[in-house]
Amino acid sequence: MKFSTKGTYGLRAVVELATRYGEGPVSLSAVATEQGISEAYLEQLMRSLKKAGIVRTARGKSGGYLLTREPVNISVLEVLRALEGSTDVVDCVGSGANICENACTCSARPLFLKLQSRINAVLEETTIGELTEDHIEQKKRIEHARLS
Amino acid sequence: MKFSTKGTYGLRAVVELATRYGEGPVSLSAVATEQGISEAYLEQLMRSLKKAGIVRTARGKSGGYLLTREPVNISVLEVLRALEGSTDVVDCVGSGANICENACTCSARPLFLKLQSRINAVLEETTIGELTEDHIEQKKRIEHARLS
DNA sequence: TTCAATCCCTACCGTTTCACTCGGCTTTAT
DNA sequence: ATAAAGCCGAGTGAAACGGTAGGGATTGAA
Asked: Strand C and chain A: which residues 34-73 have CB closer than 7 Å?
């Protein structure tokens, strides 16, 4: 019941791109260095994000990655799904998905359905824009505290 | 971000014990057969539940497993924790746990904190007693539909 | 035109977890 | 005494995790 590092790394990378939204392509090495993530590993994650239509790329020298949309129009759910494959806590709660044959007599399923809807609510309503704003605020507070 | 089968199997087993609460020990084979779970595997899960103080055992012939408390006094969170080790979505949201050194600058952490509190709320407020009642109701409805 | 900085892609690899299985031991009602 | 139950440690094949390595294609700038 853990998110893998893909989710965490990927979210952080997308937020990093969001802070530089509108400033042109950001190179992989820039993101990797800033976030302390292995460059080669992050590249794989970026490919998933690209396939999912969350980022696009500029190739060649001075190329890099860009968000395809404004940060407020990207939900956390979308990003996590692109990276982790699915955010379902069990297979049998997906829409129309792999419902096991005894689903209707499974005593745990009602719980999982409720839990999943709560989780999806949080992940859908939270956007990369929010995360980014909060993060910038947080950095400002730290800087302020350091100077005083 | 999936629960392993330990969680699902274990919950179902505990509900099975709950439906027979007050009727004496229930053998492993009875639970395994009823729920369609491998007996040897279920035994391991039962061991975890015992260590956590959720079930107790009667040894020897006509022995078996019993809940240590009334089903309404057992939360789903407790059961899942016993089986899965932890229900935290990332390590850095635990109380006092492994907070990574850059936690205060991690742009994803606020999201995970919020998500975790929502998850814990559901898992804490839901009891084995509720699950069991719902399950019995459900079985009745199915039986009723079959007869008509 | 060449060169260096980029992204693109496939393959591999050591470790851990999952979902079991196996076999032998101890306890206890009958 | 015996058979039915729980107790316990070890092993196992497959998959996922968290990377690494190395080559290729594209492009801006010298």
From this structure: 40, 43-44, 46-47, 50, 57-65
